[in-house]
Structures are given as structure tokens and as C-alpha cells.
Amino acid sequence: MDMKSVFQRPPLADCVPELVATARGERKASLVIRGGTLVNVVSGELLPDMSIAVQGSRIAYVGRDVSHTIGDDTVIIEAEGRYMAPGLLDGHCHIESTQLTVTEFAKAVLPLGVTGGFFDPHEISNVLGLKGLRLMLDEARTTPLAAYMQVASCVPSTGPELETTGASFGPAEVAEALSWGPDMIGLGEVMNFPGVVYGDDVMIGEIQATLRAGKVADGHFTWASDDWRLPVYAAAGITGDHECVTPEDVAERIRLGMYAKMRQGSAWHDVAETIRASTEMGLDTRRMMLVTDDRSAESLLHEGQMDFVVRHAIAQGVKPITAFQMATLNTAERFGVARDIGSIIPGAIADIILLEGRLAEVNVTATIAAGQLVAEYGRMVADWEGFVYPAEVMDTVRLGHELSAADFRIAAPVQEGNVPVRVIRVTENHVDTKEVRMTVPIRGGEVTADPAQDLCKIAVFERHHASGSHAVALVTGVGFTEPAAIAMTVAHDSHNLLVIGNDDELMTQAAKQAVAMRGGVVVVSASGETRFPLPIAGLMSPALFAEVAAQSESISRALQQSGCMLNNALMTLSLLALVVIPEIRLSDQGLVVIGADGIRKVSLFVEEDAAEA
């Protein structure tokens, strides 16, 4: 469109005179939505024949008759036969996982009824530090979204002895970022939960800096729900956690005063199980939230975002009004911003969606954000000035040497024979992996990736400082049925170069191409080469949403043609370097296991660890 809009969200205090004047009819509303059924998430009711009067970016009046607020210049939207609900909010989301810029993410989700979220940009923070976080915040402020950012707690997620990142955050960086404005809402998921439990000075200091700023801290606790250390974690002031995979996980967090976030990402499907805390255990739902965590661009295109998650929760037996609460009011209350967003009440920001059909279908037909109609019937009708990333963020992949097949060889402790090794086993539709023990053949002093055992090599190369640090191990469950390899600079959370394959030459080819295009994803097989460039920090594409979704789909097809049939394989494989999720991962520093006793490095070869014990 030719017209460019500015979406302002001024503090309520600055708007009170105009809102009161509009509510009594002295000043006329800028927008009126008339005659719909109000989804009142505060009272839990569906109220027919209601209307909403808006002044600027905020709601001035809600009632059955708003005729006194209508003037000659008032824009009127007729909502008869439609529901009027608060815009959906994502209570835990990493925008970078969509491979979209914030602008393109906004244009993808606003037509779906998503008007805001609480975003943890720890992906770009691990690559670019505070500069990356600030870029995401500045871009978000140009969009219609109610985009609240969290400062990453996990830069790195553990420590330099376990992984290498492009930056490092401590209490000083947390305090600085939280001073950037009220839309810096809190501390992102605290992944180093052993560090919190056992009093690590940096982790405790980051939480203290957050609490002193009057903000909230989010959690990431993957020990069992009945572990005695969960209350220790809660005692640190962490009041929300998305690592819930069972109804008991939800229950234990709520009982400790935490908000339990139930996740339905592209590759992690936890809602059907966790929602049983409500549908079967009967727990109060007001501290339950629906979130996405990570969804790919192709998932946004074909399934949706929070609209999809709400529909899915309803399909599990949750009442529609309750599911909407879990994606609006509960989320806003958790972050302390319910005065502004999360419900349709006088004084709140006018983030409103209109829906047709049955409420359970979550069929969004119009989206109003900050008092302006921005999307209608699945298409954006508003536009705004684009955001330009500086050139230096397009040059973040530095290995220090040119890769060769020799970099993917695994030296064995014997020249010939068979040895027991630890292998990472992929778990489809879940974030966790399993450690399995397998016996592998040794030829000429090297470990071979045996396709007959569904074995691939997995390698991680440090790509931030050109240090040359790298490690190679073994993974099963990928499913390649022909010689193939995938290389990617999207490798949570340190986002080093991750390469997986069953052929050293193809792994080399894929890795070189990922480096040459300044970051992204490359699949190489007998069928050819498929590329998905991600030059922004090696994580995101500057392209439009439709193009990014198409490129993401092309990677999925290439993997499937090579035999990898994992659901959302790219996202699943990208987590194999995330060393804070059980049971076993690979970083540039080597194999890392996480168990009840904490996080530690181990050898690929079982007998070597046994000899050291």
C-alpha cells in the first residue's frame, strides 16, 4: 500500500482525558465496532449485541449502546454475527525460529489474530549480543504488534567450558537491556537451572537485576516435576516455565505459584498431554498459558500460530472461553500488563479480533491492533516503514579455515574391531533426546557411520570467533536412506555450524555452501543441493514471508527425499546442539549429557569414560 501507518501505544495515563471525554460522548470515537458478541475473558462470558468505542489506540467505552460516541468521522465496523475477542498473545516465542524478520513475522501473524507476544530473542543475542537484542526491539517497535522483549538469560545457556557463543551476558547486560523501556518486559527463560539451584553467581545476579528492575523472570526446568529442586528454582523468583510435558509438570509449577506454559510448536507437541491438568485433574486454569515457543514459517503458512494452538486446545476438551483466556488474559496477567492488553475493557489498548462461525473454529476475519484495522480476511490491509539491518549483521559466519573431509573423521581408540559408543537418538515431536549405547565398527583407526544402523555423523564447528573449535559424534533416528548431509547455522542456542550426514564428502560440501552464503541451511544428496540462505546473523532471511516459507518447505522436501521423515525435521535437528535439554547433545566442545546430577561432558567412547572413573 502507499499509505504508511505509525502504530503508537502511549501510556494509559497520557490518554485518560481523551478516553473519558469520548466515553461520555463529548469527544467522538475514532473507531466503533458495533453489534457483535463479546468474548469477555475477564468474566468468562459470551455477551451478545455489544459494541466497542475506540479513541486513538485505546478502548474508551464498552456497552450495548455506543451511539453517543459516534461522529461524522468515526470509522464503523459492523460486527453483527461475529465474535469480538481480545487479540491473541503468545506467552513464549522465539521469532528467529521462524527465520523471519520481526516485520515479516508481524505480517504473517496479524491476519491470524495474533496482536502481540512476549519474545525471547536469545538466538540473535547468542550471535550478536546486546546489539542483536536492540535490533529486534527497535524493529518490533515499528510494527503494529504489542511486542514485549525479554533479555536473554542464556548467553551462553551454560558456560564456555561446555559451548562457545558469539557473546556473553551477565547481570550488567541484563540491567542495561531492561532499562531500554517498558517493552523490555523481563528475563528470558533461565536455561541454566542447575546454576540457579546451586547458587551460580552469574545466574543469581541476572535474576536479582531483573527483580530489582521490577520485571519478571521466565524459567526452563527440565528435571522431573517431583524433583525436590523445583521449589529451590521457584525460590529464586522464577514465576513461569514452558518446559512442561506432562500434566504433573503443570500441576507442580502452579502449586508453587508459577505460570505453566503449554507448548505447541512446529516440532514439539505438548498441549494434548499437559492440558490434562485442566481437563482431567480439574486444576484452576488461570495460571495456565498457551504458547508456541518455536514455529517455522511453513507452519505459520499451513497451520497458523496462536490461533492454531487455541483451536488445538479446544479440540482436547477445553471450553472455548477458557482456551481464549489461556492465550490472552492469563498471558497478560503473567507479565503484569493486563491493564493494557489481554482483554476488551475500557482503557485497554484496542487489540481486537473479529471471528466468524463457531468460536471453537477460531476463524479470524479481522484484526485491529492499537486501534487500527490492520488485517482482514487473511490479508494485511495496513503497511508501515521497513526496517533496515546494518551490513555487519550479515557477516557472522567465521570458521577460520576451509573445511575438508578430514574435519569429519572420528579417530578411534583402536585400529580395527568394534567399540561401544554413546549415540544421540532423536525424539520426534519432542525437544528431548535419548542417550543410547551402540557398538560401531572401526576401520583404519576411524569410526564409520553405518547406514544399516541408521547412524549419521554429527559435527559442530564454532563460527563466531574463528577459533577452530569443533567436535564430531554420532546420531541415530535421522532416517537418511541414501548418502546425504545437512548443514545449518541455526543450531540452538549457540548457533554454531551444525552438520549431520552419512557421507564425509557430502557433509563437507554442505558445510562449505552454508559458509559461502553467510549462513543458512543446505541439504546435499544424490538428488542435488537445496539452499535456504539466512544471512541475518545466520538465523533469519530478509525475504518476504511467502518466500521464506517456500524455502523452508524446500528443505523439508529435500530431507524427505533423502529418507528423513521426521515431522518438521529442520527444527528438530537444529536442537541437537542445545546442551541444556536432556539427555545428550553435541556442542563445539564435545558431547554433553544432562541428568539428575547436572550437566557434564562425556566421551563418545564408553570405555574411555569407564577408564577415567
From TrEMBL:
Keywords for this protein: Hydrolase, Manganese
Pfam families, A to Z:
Adenine_deam_C, Amidohydro_1
Needs which cofactor?
Answer: Mn(2+)
Domain spans labelled Adenine deaminase C-terminal: 433-592
Catalytic reaction(s) noted: adenine + H2O + H(+) = hypoxanthine + NH4(+)
- Return the InterPro entries for the record: Adenine_deam, Adenine_deam_C, Amidohydro-rel, Metal-dep_hydrolase_composite, Metal_Hydrolase
Query: Entry's Gene3D superfamilies?
Result: Metal-dependent hydrolases, Urease, subunit C, domain 1
One GO molecular-function entry: adenine deaminase activity
Q: What's the top EC group for this one?
A: hydrolase
Top-level taxon in the UniProt lineage: Bacteria
Give its E.C. classification number. Answer: 3.5.4.2
Q: Where is the Amidohydrolase-related domain?
A: 84-374
Q: Which family does it belong to?
A: Belongs to the metallo-dependent hydrolases superfamily. Adenine deaminase family.
Q: Which PANTHER family match?
A: ADENINE DEAMINASE, N-ACETYLGLUCOSAMINE-6-PHOSPHATE DEACETYLASE
Its recorded name reads Adenine deaminase
Organism encoding this protein:
Paenibacillus brasilensis
